[in-house]
Design brief:
Strand order of the largest sheet of chain A: 6-7-8-3-9-10
Helix content of chain B: over 70%
CATH topology of the largest domain in chain A: Rossmann fold
Largest sheet of chain A: 6 strands, mixed
Distance between the termini of chain A: 61 Å
Radius of gyration of chain A: 27 Å
CATH class of the largest domain in chain A: Alpha Beta
Number of strands of chain A: 18
CATH class of chain B: Mainly Alpha
Structural class of chain B: mainly alpha
Distance between the termini of chain B: 34 Å
Number of helices of chain A: 12
Strand content of chain A: 15-25%
Helix content of chain A: 25-40%
Radius of gyration of chain B: 20 Å
Oligomer: heterodimer
Order of helices and strands of chain A: EEEHEEHEHHHEHEHEEEEEHEHEHEHEEH
Number of domains of chain B: 1
Largest sheet of chain B: none
Order of helices and strands of chain B: HHHHHHHHHHHHH
Number of domains of chain A: 2
Structural class of chain A: alpha/beta
Shape of chain B: globular
Number of helices of chain B: 13
């Protein structure tokens, strides 16, 4: 494996500086950070598009800044986020440009270009005009161009920005695959992608790299205002503030879509009793909603029941999200019955409500309007 | 090209033309064909090729299909320095080349000064600004030329205007030789350059990560293109539109934008367009000769519009 060391590189321009001192690891290396943190500046500096203020980049001990542009392009290259505007060039013409650092006679490498394109699953696009391809296909053509350079290190700036989810997954899987043959550093700013594809995360924030390690432990919550739960690996909206309109009785993930809808509608809610480890618990905790918890698989304690009941009584209605009741959560049923008896309207998303009035998922907005 | 040899104020039967072509400089017909028409035809081919290649190079460099030596002010600078030498007698450079020598070196110098200025600006601000600065500089040198004309001797002004108006009628073997000595090597250099700059079509940053030395490419492209432009201006005068339309015709007919195809085919289309325009310039209103720029514009614009809209219809 190639050793790529970004040695005390300080990048930027007057008024903006970002520092990095890292050695790329095995697998997919990801540069993560908010917009404007300097991800692109770092990538463009490492690849030589921007002059570093200080520092050097070593690939297998060779300082790439000391190489000519042509020799450097044989050692490392980059995929940039802007897609070139081309009117006539075919996909294969673009791929062939990757031959440039090895030979000026590009068209002698048609066979190699076809092989690379076939490997990336775009062999059938060779004769198509680049301009007519979809964003995902263009991205793959540009990856093929980079591979033609046979680099030891590949830097990729925001490869997924304009892609639909299928293409995102496809391109990221491809980059992961490539990381077995060359050092790959990708800048990513979607946590979904980061949690699922990255092996090592370099968190850029405040002009320096704040964290190096696995994505699960990356302190994203210190950087982003929006809640993120590493276990689910996706963003949630923060729970709306204010007096809860609805108290949700969760279980087995049934309340997750309800909580997301309510958060989108900016309707405050409380949740309980939820078992730790339940999807509903992850989401409610990530959102920061008022929440009563119980240990995994344990029977709900009286203390938890009482706390949840107090919450339910403070809201305008209680909603059972539809989880069936068994040994561990039978007290949630008791909670609903008690609330109903004390005059709190109870609704249930269950097909066959054990208590309260049946509500279907589409009726949630109507209920909120009625209560609010 | 052969048809061009048959055209002219003096009617010479086609058989006669072929009979004398290439060897007979003695008879009247032979002199007209070999001494007047042949160098003129070759001059139009070389000059047209030079302008179209210069235009193609500028278009590749600036990634802008509107770029050509005139838009960028390089032609205007060449004309200004030509005027400086011709009207005022301020001569810069070496009076070494045949006949036009001093004017040639002046125009090349003018083109070189503006090109160097544009390069310095582009290194600092990027290729986009080159076009803007070029247009602005073009106006400055245009104004300079107007001032020279206003100040100069009326007799000289007439000759200057005629010389810069753009016509291949004055192309003799001597001038053709002097022009070709510089233009043909420069065209060959442009062909080699077209291989060197191939990643440029992707844009400067993509090109740089693909291994192109962007700075070197800029310098070489501007150097070659401005020599070509200045040579044509010094020997033929202003021939507008070829630098713009030649590369466009290549691009649209061949459906390509790779430099290694665009540059050689632009040489061909530029040469052919200029030759056709020259034929029309001297045969539309005989014995008068129209300025070639008038013809290239009047004929070139409809052709260009037709090609552009045709492509649009095809999607």
């Amino acid at each position: 494996m190639y050793r790529v060391r970004v040695d005390s590189v300080e990048a930027g321009y007057p008024g903006f500086r970002v520092r990095a001192d890292i050695e790329l690891g095995e697998g997919l290396n990801c540069l993560v950070g908010p917009n404007g943190a300097g991800k692109s500046t770092l990538i463009r500096t490492v690849v030589g598009l921007l002059r570093p203020v200080r520092g050097a980049v070593y690939v297998d001990g060779v300082n790439v800044y000391k190489l000519s542009p042509r020799s450097r392009a044989r050692v490392l290259t980059a995929l940039l986020p802007d897609v070139p505007t081309l009117h006539f060039m075919r996909a294969i013409d673009v791929v062939l440009l990757g031959r440039y650092p090895h030979s000026y006679l590009l068209y002698r490498a048609v066979d190699e270009a076809m092989r690379v394109m076939a490997r990336l699953g775009i062999g059938d696009l060779a004769e198509r005009r680049f301009a007519e391809l979809s964003s995902g296909q263009r991205q793959r053509v540009l990856i093929a161009r980079a591979l033609m350079q046979r680099p030891r290190a590949l830097l990729v700036d925001e490869p997924t920005v304009h892609l639909d989810i299928d293409a995102k997954v496809h391109v990221m899987s491809m980059l992961r695959e490539l990381s077995r043959e060359m050092a790959v550093l990708v800048s990513v700013h979607e946590p979904d992608i980061m949690y699922r594809f990255c092996d090592t995360v370099y968190l850029v924030w405040g002009g320096t790299i704040r964290y190096v390690g696995p994505p699960e432990e990356a302190p994203l919550t210190e950087i982003y205002a929006v809640p993120l739960s590493p276990a689910i690996g996706t963003l949630e909206l923060p729970a709306p503030r204010g007096d809860p309109l609805l108290h949700l009785v969760p279980g087995a993930g049934t309340c997750t879509p309800v909580m997301r809808r309510l958060a989108a509608m900016r309707v405050p809610f409380s949740v309980g009793v939820a078992h730790v480890g339940d999807l509903d618990h992850f989401v409610a905790a990530a959102m920061g909603a008022p929440l009563v918890s119980e240990q995994p698989y344990a029977e709900i304690s009286d203390a938890a029941l009482e706390a949840a009941l107090r919450m339910a009584l403070r809201s305008r209605a209680a909603l059972h999200c539809g989880c069936p009741f068994g040994a561990a959560n039978s007290k949630n049923l008791a909670l609903l019955r008690e609330a109903a008896q004390r005059g709190i309207p109870v609704y249930s998303l269950s097909r066959d409500p054990p208590v309260g009035e049946r509500l279907d998922a589409a009726g949630l907005a109507g209920l909120v309007r009625k209560l609010g | 090209m052969f048809a061009s040899l048959f055209l002219g104020t003096v009617h010479i039967p086609p058989g006669k033309v072929l009979a004398v072509l290439g060897w007979d400089f003695q008879s009247v017909d032979g002199y007209i064909v070999n001494g007047i028409r042949l160098p003129r035809v070759l001059g139009a081919l070389v000059g047209g090729a030079a302008l179209a290649v210069a235009g193609a190079l500028y278009q590749i460099l600036l990634r802008n299909p509107l770029a050509d030596p005139y838009v960028l002010g390089i032609a205007n600078a060449a004309i200004f320095f030509y005027g400086l030498a011709f009207l005022v007698g301020i001569q810069v450079g070496l009076p070494a080349l045949a006949g036009q020598g001093i004017y040639v070196s002046s125009s090349v110098l003018g083109a070189a000064i503006v090109s160097a200025l544009l390069l310095a600006l582009s290194a600092r601000y990027g290729a986009l600004y080159v076009l803007l600065f070029g247009v602005a500089l073009g106006f400055v040198f245009g104004a300079g030329t107007q001032i020279l004309i206003a100040l100069a001797d009326v007799m000289k002004v007439g000759a200057f205007v005629l010389a810069t108006l753009g016509t291949f009628s004055g192309v003799t073997w001597d001038r053709l030789l002097a022009m070709s000595v510089v233009c043909l090597p420069a065209l060959a250099a442009a062909l080699a350059l077209s291989l060197y700059i191939s990643p440029y079509v992707l844009g400067e940053e993509h090109a740089a990560v693909t291994g192109l030395d962007v700075r070197a490419a800029r310098v070489l492209v501007v150097a070659v293109a401005s020599v070509l432009t200045a040579m044509v201006i010094a020997y033929v005068g202003v021939v507008g539109f070829v630098g713009l339309v030649g590369p466009h015709i290549s691009r649209l007919l061949l459906g390509t934008e790779s430099p290694q195809r665009l540059v050689p085919t632009s040489a061909l289309t530029g040469g052919m367009v200029t030759l056709a325009a020259d034929d029309m310039a001297r045969s539309l209103l005989p014995p008068l000769e129209l300025p070639i720029t008038a013809v290239t514009s009047l004929v070139g614009v409809p052709v260009l519009i037709w090609l552009l809209t045709r492509r649009h219809v095809q999607g």
